[in-house]
Amino acid sequence: MNAPWKPAGSDGRDPFHAYVCDDHSLDLLRAVVQDMGWPIEKVHKGGLRNAVQSLSMAPSPNVLFVDLSESGDPLNDINNLAEVCEPGTVVIASGQVNDVRLYRDLVASGIQDYLLKPMAADTLRDALAAAQAVFLAPRAESTDDRPHLMVTVIGTRGGVGASTVTTSLAYLSSTKAKRSTALLDLDVHFGTGALAMDLEPGRGLTDAVENPSRIDGLFIERAMVRASDTLALLSAEAPINQPLITDGSAYYQLEEELRSAFECTFVDLPRAMLVQHPHLVHESNLVVIVTEFTLASARDTIRILSWLKTNAPQSQVIVVANKAQAGIAEITRKDFEHSIERKIDSVLPYDAKVTAQAAKLGKTVADSGRSSKLGQSLVALHGHLVAVAEGDNAAGPAGGGKGGSLIGRLMDVKLALPRKGKAKFVPEAVAE
After folding, report:
1. Domain residue limits, the chain
2. Among 384, 431, 388, residue whose Cα is nearest residue 172
3. What pLDDT, in 10s, does the model give residues 53-107?
């Protein structure tokens, strides 16, 4: 079906097929198709079920017209059609149900347009011309030689806001950078990527884990949930009583397919998966570590930096301190940087009002709070990532600088913390 980020070529394809249920639509389509110079014998009687049966044994056309009038579950039937329809085919549907929600769901599933019956000749002709124009439109990737950018975001602790940062960066990549962007949320049981964008996650990710052999370009096109024309999401809400057993090959295949289909990929990677599937960061250009000014986060930042130095030496590492509040910190920025032996690249301020409003609206924080200090800090972080990726800046080495033991570095931090019975310790203000 139509996918603006991964169109297929037209070699060996018919220009048009149609499958309709009634004689009026059949006669109208044949008349319009003949005017457009397409063969009228490709307009068939039989509706969507006939279309699925025929296309399972023959190449898909450039433009496909299907009638949903006899379908009891249009969305499910369209998904069945997608399983036999080659990537790049532009699909137009028609039906008798006048429902805005159905229209939106069908468009979100990948069709180009939905026409209400009875159809007018001019409306039908315009829809077919628009579908043909979509298929024949110049492909953006032919003029863009920028290499694929894969960014992996890892939170040092649960609740530091790694998913919030990931969704915002993916949104900014698709809007400000104008790049076709994929967001891969690998927390298959408790991921919040879809929730943050008010989307239904679907079963694409769980299907991929359970059946890695199915992963290909067509599977990606069907499984991805579109947030916009330039942003798509792959996530899951797998039942928590059903553990997914995998060697990680499915996740790696997904990353490879996303690399082929999109210009940018943002991976929300739970920290536990570093231990289970270390190969998932081997292809990452950038790794963003999201942390906070606490002793536990300092410890885990040190450990993750050391791990990345050994397992992902090719990746540029960006350290982001999130939820920072001036005058309220378990560890000051200076002491935190001393313990991890490198500078923090970005500090994101704590803003409960902006994050709550974003959650209520079903938008990313970068979208909902674009005029806030937090929103502007996320824009600056995105700009920094782009600069590093394009070689205009250099991130610090993954492992930090001087060396020394983990215990020794944490002891330096503990010495700066207040002790019982002593004068009250006043932390420094957190600043950029």
Report:
1. 16-137, 149-415
2. 384
3. 888 888 888 889 999 988 888 888 888 887 787 767 889 999 888 888 888 778 8
pLDDT reading at 424 higher than 50 = no
φ, ψ dihedrals at 199, nearest 5°: -120, 155
Judge whether 16-137 and 149-415 match in fold. yes
Cα gap 165→349, rounded to integer Å: 12
Q: Which DSSP letter does residue 241 get?
A: T
> Which residues 6+ apart lie within 8 Å of 154 measured at CB?
162, 269, 270, 271, 274, 287, 288, 289, 290, 304
Please calculate the CA angle 203-205-210 and round it to the nearest 5 degrees: 90
Contact predicate 193/269, CB 8 Å: no
Give Dmax (Cα) for the chain. Answer: 91
Indicate if the pLDDT at residue 220 is higher than 80: yes
C-alpha span between 221 and 228 (Å, rounded): 14
Distance CA 182, CA 400 (A): 30
pLDDT in tens, 222-235: 788 889 889 999 99
Fold exhibited by the domain 149-415: Rossmann fold (3.40.50)
| Closest among 153, 98, 167, 426 to 281, alpha carbons compared | 153
Q: Two tokens at 13? A: 């394809």
Tally Cβ neighbours within 10 Å of residue 380: 13
**Which residues on neighbouring strands pair with residue 226, listed in sequence order?**
232
Q: Considering the chain, what is the average pLDDT of its residues?
A: 83
pTM: 0.63
CATH 3.30.497.10 fits 16-137, yes or no: no
